[in-house]
Every structure is written in C-alpha cells, then in structure tokens.
Amino acid sequence: MSSKLKAARGPLASCWGLWGLLGLLAAPGAHAADPTPIAPKCDLPYAYDAGTKACKPSAAFKDLKGELCTGNFGTLAGEECKPPAADKMPKPNCGDSRFRFKEGQCFVDDSTPSSSEGDYVGDCFTIRGVTPALRDKGMAPPPGADYRLMLVTSQKDISDGKDRELKVVDAEFFWKPLWCVTKGGAEVKTIKASELVESGAARRGWVFGAMVVPFKYYKEGGSQTGNLSVGPYAGWRYSRNGSGFTLAVSAALSTIQGEVRDSANNIIDRPQLVGYTAAVGVLWDISKRPGARPFQLGFVVGQDRVGRSNVTKFQQNGETWFALQVGYRFTDN
Predict the structure, then answer these.
(1) What is the pLDDT of residues 250-275, one digit of tens each?
(2) For 200-245, how does the pLDDT look when each residue is reduced to its tens digit (9 = 90+)?
(3) Domain check: are 175 and 223 in the same one?
(4) Is 120 among the domain residues?
(5) In 56-71, which positions are buried (b, 16+ CB within 10 angstroms) versus exposed (e)?
(6) DSSP-derived secondary structure letter, 27
(7) What is the Cα–Cα distance from 109 to 331, expressed in whole angstroms?
(8) Whole-model pTM?
(9) What sign has the CA pseudo-torsion 101, 107, 113, 115?
C-alpha cells in the first residue's frame, strides 16, 4: 500500500466512533467492479455518439483544412474534409489510462492484481459441521472440541476449473480472529473446496484488489460530489454459507473536480485536478443462491487531498467524506 496512508489519520479517527454502524452495513462483491460514472469521450475533432457507442465526426469536421484534415484520418475533397470510413474511425476512450471503454461504458482497468473467490491459499477454515467427506478424511472437530481450524497451504484446479483440490493442515490462531498459522507437527490432508463449503465451514483470510468510490458525501457542509477515487485496496474477509463481510483499507489516486471563482465568488472554471484518497470501509455481501450475484451493502469513510498549488481550487481538501454502497460494487472481488 502507498506511503500516502499517513494521510488517513483523519478518516481513521472518525471511523472509530462509527465502528458499530459500520458493522451493520458491509460487503464486497463480484468479479468485476461496476461501471464508473466516467463518461466515454472521443478526441477532437470527433464526438462520442451514445446511440452507436462509437466516435463520429464533429459538426466542424468538414471545415478542417490541410493537415488538420488528413492528420485526423480525413480526406480532402476540394474545400471539404471527408470523414474516414466507419472501420477507420478512432475508438472511444475514457480520458484516463486507469479506465477502459467497453460497450458504451467506462470500467476500471482490471490490470490491478486482485484476489478472487477461488483463491484459497493462506485462508483459514473453521469447521463445525460434520459431513461424511470430512469424517472420512479425518477432518471432523476433535472429541469435546467445538470446531477444527484448518489452513490452506496449496491448491490446484480440478473438474475443468469448477472446483479446487486443497492441501490443508491443522492450524491455530496467531492473532485471533484475523490470522492463523500451521500447528506444529500437523499432517497435510487433501480435500475439495466444494466439500468444505458444503459443510458450512467459515472462511477467513486476506483479500486485495481494486476499489472504486464513484460518489461521496462530505461531512462538513453536507455536499455530495461525483469525485471519483480508484486504486488498490487490501483487507480482511470473513464469509460463511455464501455471504460475508470485508474490512478494507485503500490509498488511491483521485480525479477531483475543482472550482475557480472570481472576486464575486462566481464559478468561472471547473478544472480536473489529480489528488489522492485514503479510506477505510466495511463491505458486506448477502447471497441466497450459489453462483448468483450477491446483494451488497457498504460504508466507506475517507479524505481527499490535492497538491499545495491546487488547495484553493478544492474547497473540500482534507475534509472527511462518507460513501454508502447499496447494490453497486465498490470492489472487483
């Protein structure tokens, strides 16, 4: 995580007082973050056509002269600049390398390393229920014990990638309830991931990926903005029977809309500023059917900051904001 997490001291302090509320909200989501509010665009002299989800020549294209025409894929026909054929037309973009255009919407570029639901290595399973598969493999809770803790040490795909074969060992808590480690002298056992899930075993472990916060409500002044934050996050997840919650910490670059005002306090410009965001949050997903997209709730609190030269253009610099997630996916896993 970035060293800019030092800037999170303000939101972290605010978060402690809200921790009870955060526990009621919660969850990460599915396998790709939802579309961002970034609008697709086309570089001049082209304009984006929402109907065709493609670029088209702007109204001024026909008046381009000389190299302004040919340098933009046009063809001069007398005094008029003719646009290129449809297959030669420039492609829409999102105006920022952090996003990619797909089917008329802007998505977060998925090159950020990300854990997924099918990544088990390092995760701990708390086994309480006893199934025939667990009993046959000697993985039922010991006599007199309420549960058995197992740590996943390796995995491989089986059943054409629809299941995982896991190597697991008996474990004990190193830092309860977040972290478990191998118990001394533990025997390595083999089990399918589906067999653990069927037993109702609880799963806990570290997660990471991309987090997108598309809208924010500022505590001071009660204003709401569409300033977008996107960047890596790391956290801890607990899940059982298809549902679970994640505690997440993120440090991200932000696209921030600033304001320039004249002496009469009228807005004369809205420049796009680059800043950074530090945030913490609780994300919760609820699922009633395997394989279906879960319903998601979440609550994130953070701060945005810009460089010293742009502080006067961003009135909310350093102010605490909140973001509520209902159905929308803030994370890509």
Answers:
(1) 987 777 778 888 888 888 887 878 88
(2) 899 999 998 888 787 788 877 666 666 667 778 899 999 888 788 9
(3) no
(4) no
(5) bbeeebbebeeeebee
(6) -
(7) 12
(8) 0.63
(9) negative
